[in-house]
Amino acid sequence: SLKLEDAQKEKIKPILEQLKASIKDNGTQMHDLETKIHEQVNSATMDQSVVDGLIDQKTKLIGNIIKAKTMAKNQILMILNPQQKMDLQAKMKAVEDKMVAKYKSCHDED
């Protein structure tokens, strides 16, 4: 726990709400693109230029999500005191290390 003060919670809440809305909106659009890509894959006359366009759109949405997460992390870090920043960064590093290890173990099995 970061032991946030009430004032910090009030400042962080809208940041997280904005991030959630952004991810939900981009996620909905990505789902729609996946449906269209799937339709092309199963089409007897797949149009490569259409697939390329859909993939470009999906790539842009993924970039938007990464940007939104990065901005939210930065905004939240600016609200935290030095100890809270170190604690949060340690937690984020632990999650990242866990994901790297999981990714590595999946590929070691290949």
What's a quick, concise take on this entry?
By secondary structure, the protein is mainly α.
Gap between N and C termini: 38 Å
Question: What's the helix count?
Answer: 3
Can you give the helix content as a percent range?
over 70%
What is the overall shape? Answer: elongated
SSE string, helices as H and strands as E: HHH
Please give the radius of gyration in angstroms: 19 Å
Structural class: mainly alpha
Sheet of most strands: none
Residue-averaged pLDDT: 94
Number of E-type strands:
0
Enumerate the spans where pLDDT stays under 50 for 5 or more consecutive residues.
Answer: none
How much of the polypeptide forms β-strand, as a percent range? under 5%
What does this structure look like?
The protein contains three helices and no strands. About 85% of the residues lie in helices and about 0% in strands. The mean pLDDT is about 95. The chain is an all-alpha fold.
Notable features of this structure?
110 residues; mainly alpha; elongated
Which secondary structure elements does this structure contain, and how are they paired or packed?
Blueprint: H1 6-41, H2 48-79, H3 82-108
Helix pairs in contact: 1-2
